[in-house]
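User: For my dataset I need records formatted as: sequence, then structure tokens, nothing else. Please produce one.
Assistant:
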Amino acid sequence: MIDLERILAPWHLRPWPRPTAPQPVAFVFSRCPGNWEDEPTANEGLLSLAADLHRSGLARRIAIPGTGADRGPETTTYQGCTVWGRALEALGVPREALVLVPGEGAHTRTEGDDFVRLARERGWRDALILMNPHETLRVMLGLLVSFRLFDHPMRATPVTPAATDWNRVVYGSQGALELPRAHHILEEARRVVGYQAKGDLASLDDLDRYYREVLGIASPVPPR
């Protein structure tokens, strides 16, 4: 059964509050151009957010996908760990605090698998997960599957920029479509429905329980 009304509800478009407790690591899922660069007026740069969390002591390490080392800024997909690593260093994140997550990292689900596998190896049970608001649903549903796959439950707290420019033209998943960010919301819903049908994502009921029972927060998932 498809929870289309719950998926399309705007509850997962809100910004998540800034964390208050220090965590061992903050993981930034790869994003296409336009989705991570610093925009001081909108405060939506994901890497700037990561650097700020490290600088303020809320994230001891910053983890990014370790793929695409040979890519450059001209690509419309993830520009790779070399470009992002240099950007983070320019933002003040020391090299020793940067973690390149090894693995396949071809898309969000596999990046989640790669991160949870590394977290199990390093004994991380808590993490901050950085993404744009409209991507929170797909990211968190995928992580729940990764936790089960590697038998490594975690307290993964979503973190989003304080403000989002929904009119900004950005590339969507895999760099295939360049649209105003608001137009990607329906694309995200379509992916969630399709990936849930294949078993690649957890259910909304699973996510509801995770928010309430693991993160200890009032679940934003709408009731049936």
